[in-house]
Amino acid sequence: MWKVWKDLGIKGHFEPTDSDWLNASYLFYDENQELVRVYNKDCVRLEKLKYDYQYSPLLWENARSIPPLVPFNMKSVETVKQVPDVKFPLKLDTITKVVVKRPANNRSEKDKKKANELLLIEGIKFNSDTFVKFDVLVNVQDDVSAISPEDSEFAGSFAQLPHNHRDDMLMTSGARFGLTELLEDIQAEDDEFILVTLVPKVWFDDVTIDEIKVELVPII
């Protein structure tokens, strides 16, 4: 997957340069059963690892999601008012809808080449011994169960596997999802707001979220 990601050559997709990530290390036993330490910085270039993969066509490389038959109208002020206000930190114990303001709308192609529009879900707090998963949908009004990863309104999922400890440990994480192509597909590029729906796939009552927002992230 690392090789595939690198070969896509998408502008704005760059390898991490933060020293905390580059100097992060892991311990493994090698073929001689000796303990060795491996650093991220030594693994980002395949030529240093002395292996490569044969090219294989990617059937999904240029695929796009299924657009909605009837796009959801978030242009209406009345539509926005119909969504109940939520307070943060948000307790994610049921399907939750949040109206989120965009930093800019109706962006030109030139603007899109300069910055990606991202949906940020920050301060996701949960117990480390709990399996956590929820889906993130955009501009879905009614039956969320009818939306699958094939649909344009499906932004992605957040998932965390449990790590068993003797004592519960509170973990904090975050997630970000691309919106540029998604908003094109659902015909919502000129909307001032989007409707974000969080759908728990595992029912839990100890997961909270600090903030949901949309940001423009410059493409370097």
TrEMBL record:
Keywords attached to this entry: Disulfide bond
Annotated InterPro entries: Di-copper_centre_dom_sf (IPR008922), Polyphenol_oxidase_C (IPR022740), Polyphenol_oxidase_cen (IPR022739)
Superkingdom: Eukaryota
Family under the similarity heading: Belongs to the tyrosinase family.
GO molecular function terms listed in the Swiss-Prot or TrEMBL record: catechol oxidase activity
Matching Gene3D superfamilies: Di-copper center containing domain from catechol oxidase
Pfam families: PPO1_DWL, PPO1_KFDV
Sequence ranges assigned to domain Polyphenol oxidase C-terminal in this UniProt record: 88-216
Entry protein name: Polyphenol oxidase C-terminal domain-containing protein
Residue intervals of the Polyphenol oxidase central domain: 16-64
Keyword Disulfide bond carried by entry: yes
Organism of this sequence: Lactuca virosa
PANTHER family in UniProt: POLYPHENOL OXIDASE C, CHLOROPLASTIC-LIKE
